[in-house]
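Entry 14. Structure prediction run on the chain below.
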Amino acid sequence: MTAEDVSALIHVRLSKPPFVEELAKLVLEKSALSTESLQSSSYARLELVKALAATTLQELDDSIREVLAAEVREITKYMPAKYTPVVESLTLFLDFESIAAEPSKYLFSKVCDGGGLDCLLRGYVQMVKDSMASTGEEIDRPLSILALALYGVFLRHSLASKRLGVKTVDDPERAFNEVIGLLGGTGSVYYSGTLGKMTTIAPLWEKDPFQYIAEEAKLVVTTSKTALYFSGRLLDLLTHFFITRYYETRLLRILVSRRILSVG
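Output returned:
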């Protein structure tokens, strides 16, 4: 298959509900996504039914990982070979928090030697940058949008540490930019504008971390769609696909875990 064929396949996958906007709305309203509502549409991602019906957090996480793995396999099967390193590096992003908790398993973290999240992010961004560059496509936009999602990881880590009384950075925007270095090109326009908005909503974390994550998801995915979805480039669309799935899984986990744990 050609790059255009794979792009068409990704477009089809992204057109199937539930969408990030819907999931974020449910989180903010403290509502639920039921298996019945998902099954009411024959066009929905019915493979998510098992995750929605999970009775334990482990079952939920395993089900979500199974769905993501199957979807990535489907896309990779038809992918031109030069995009394979990009898929491999972005697949790691889907579970980045787990990687941050146990980084020694991953080659890009070997230079860190216990250097913490800053070093891990720096190594990961460089790996993604190299994989994107190997496609021959322009990388500034997809790299900048991915950096926004990584800033979300960095910011949430800082906010959680602060909540626990651990000393953290005073200016997370500046600290993160020092970690990843300068991002140039047209992508920097999308990056700088949304970065400031993410910092603005950071106080929501103290009130309700779930509300903060829902708002972050809306911001980043909307920016990603504007910057990447309509460009006609496979690298852009791939990046948007993985960012979208990253936030979908976080929102799904909130919705289902509320039911499992019976919390608001």
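The CA atoms of residues 54 and 60 lie 5 Å apart.
Filed with the rest of this week's runs.
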